Amino acid sequence: MRRKGMFRKVTSAFAALAFSAAVFAGPAFAADDPIVIKFSHVVAENTPKGQMANKFKDMIKERLDGKVKVEVFPNSQLFGDNKVLEAMLLGDVQLAAPSLSKFERYTKSLQIYDLPFLFKDMAAVERFQQSADGQKLLHATSDRGLIGLGYLHNGLKQLSASEPLRVPQDAAGKKFRIMSSDVLAAQFQAVDAVPLKKPFSEVFTLLQTKAIDGQENTWSNIYSKKFFEVQPYITESNHGVLDYMVVTSKEFWLGLPVDIRNEVKATLDEAIKFGNDVADQKAKADRQRIIDSGRSEVIELTDAERSQWVEVMKPVWKEFEEDIGPDLIDAAYNSNM
Fold it and tell me: What pTM was computed for the model?
């Protein structure tokens, strides 16, 4: 009887150990079937993000054909940015690249990227993101089951509107679409405007029907989504950065075989660099295409006009300093030097 009892205890211990190992290992993958990575995003295929996703798909096919298959779903075909992170945690999608604003409910530290006029140009953004502080932020959501794999640029944001915006007073009372971000809401409230949190997929219709007066976006998105066709004025404010974090679920990522995971990460790094180069070139080209179209007037701010916007919006930094951390804000600001 004693031996039988000891046998049961040993068997139970091995069962518990096996269960723990299975949980730690994450999802199991069939040896004969390729690992499917569904990559969901919300923008057009000709944007930097769209081109990056397709480049990643093509390179994975070239390097890991038969082992890994990437399926890309652009234009919110699979999920919008408001739902994609929940879907990722459920295993319905494996890769996404939401704007950094979308992580607000998972971590407050990434709000740093929404602070207005924090970065003077994209070179400063890149310096900060590649620094130790910037790289650490990729893991800010790991305790919530999400792992950042890299930063993807889109560019600096401009303001478009139904009427010219030259000084902060011009925005007063106007309704602007924003992403779901408390910082962006505070940014527009600072100029007495009305921020409305709406999905990206609805912006064109909202502008076309005049349900809103304006929006903020990069040259790439303004051009690819044809916002310039329904917005007669675009102010070249360069007031904020619109970047994305390429993200996956911790369970999926750690569940990949190590050799596969390393190859996927190396390929993704190359695709992101490609996408960032596209973003830089496209920002300049799409700005010129908008000007050449004659559909929308691009307003270039004088130094005095820009200073007014900075003065009115900079107090937003202080408002969110406790959530983000003053040292982190200082590190980001110092990347301008």
Answer: 0.84
